[in-house]
Amino acid sequence: MFKKILIANRGEIALRVIRACREMGIASVAVHSTADSDAMHVRMADEAVCIGPPPANQSYLLVPAIISACEITGAEAIHPGYGFLSENEKFVQAVQDHGLTFIGPDPEHIRLMGDKITAKDTMKKLGVPCVPGSDGGVPTLEDALRIGEEFGYPVLVKATAGGGGRGMKLARSAEEMKNAFRTARSEAKAAFGNDEVYLEKYLGKPRHIEVQVFGDGKGNAVHLGERDCSLQRRHQKVFEEAPGPAIDAETRARIGKVCAEAVAAINYAGAGTIEFLFEDGEFFFIEMNTRLQVEHPVTESIFGVDLVREQIRVAAGLPLSFSQEDLQINGHSIEVRINAEKLPNFTPCPGRITAYHAPGGLGVRMDSALYNGYSIPPYYDSLIGKLIVHGRDRPEAIARLDRALGELIVDGIDTTLPMFRDLLRERAVLTGDYDIHWLESWLERAN
Ligand code: ADP
């Protein structure tokens, strides 16, 4: 097992990894920008190294600085968290070239899944159901119009390098395709330096269902059921739950098996998430994330496993610590993402926290790097905390979430907390009867 791990991240996810390290008897190294000298991950780690000025591209994304920090401290492995360098194959290659271990999959798997066209192609060959669409890239508007006619509108134009909903445009008719095709390409070019796009049939009222998988890198893999992350704003998840209210045990076992077999077949190592749209009882693959997800705690809650510990074990060459049969669902879990944003427009709202009190009690977990007097810097993501609850069933989890939201105090800045109190009064949320468009239209109605 590793003696020392460096965490190439900040905020709640850095704390999450430090906690796993401590329980495993592994020393932790934090890295930070000058804006984060007072951050909780710096205080909580065994050692900390300042790696640059506030902008992420001069610190948290600066590969030579992170590798130097490993060499200075003697860290043997790097946990990337999510975001930043977690799905950057060049970073992983550099880490390995320096004789260090990357806690995550091989660079070739990151490359394979990072390009959405290759990802879809691979998944299709592995027997995973995909959204019907163009097979591969669509080079010209003429091709796009021809395929649009073939599939029938509405059609979604998507960037092969896409992420965070960028480079994605809806075309409801041939007329709209002209504009959608052009803007998706220029957006993709600007955001990712790659203007290749592909087409997908647009699904009208799907749920976002994602399957958690775990591989040992040697051809063995398991699945840990699904998460329903349909409640999204601008393609960003805000409320996630497991198990999915629309998925029964038989459906779970069926799609889970397909996913586990697919990642086993490519010798995938570590945690991965296979994302689907789910409509009328059918699954359609959209993408695979080759890292730990923000919402991983809901899966941990219902299976009683530590996914970060498992990532570290697999990276150290150990076998999976659970078999498919060991993985039994216990109860229901919900996570809400609390952002430093001002409602109703979700304007980023960094600033000083004058009072912070985390909720507690049975079945409540608060993953946050906040503390009294902390100043949230304006340079990074606005996620300031994740409130995760676990109950024996969905109604108990909802009641617990309502109770915990009432206990949570974050003073000094505006947050998205009030939205969750309101959401828990909505029938669709109480019954679990929602799709990926529900939250946006609810927000529109509320404004
Ligand atoms: P990104 O990587 O940019 O987040 P995804 O492919 O994961 O892009 O899609 C993000 C979100 O966009 C999905 O969760 C879903 O809400 C919506 N979406 C993607 N593909 C389709 C589709 N074919 N039909 C309808 N909605 C879609």
From TrEMBL:
GO molecular function: biotin carboxylase activity
Annotated keywords: ATP-binding, Biotin, Fatty acid biosynthesis, Fatty acid metabolism, Ligase, Lipid biosynthesis, Lipid metabolism, Magnesium, Metal-binding, Nucleotide-binding
Catalytic activity: N(6)-biotinyl-L-lysyl-[protein] + hydrogencarbonate + ATP = N(6)-carboxybiotinyl-L-lysyl-[protein] + ADP + phosphate + H(+)
Gene3D superfamilies in the record: 3.40.50.20, ATP-grasp fold, A domain, ATP-grasp fold, B domain
Residues of the ATP-grasp domain: 120-316
Enzyme's top EC category: ligase
EC number(s) per entry: 6.3.4.14
SUPFAM superfamilies in the cross-refs: Glutathione synthetase ATP-binding domain-like, PreATP-grasp domain, Rudiment single hybrid motif
Protein name: Biotin carboxylase
Organism: Meridianimarinicoccus marinus
Gene from which the chain derives: accC
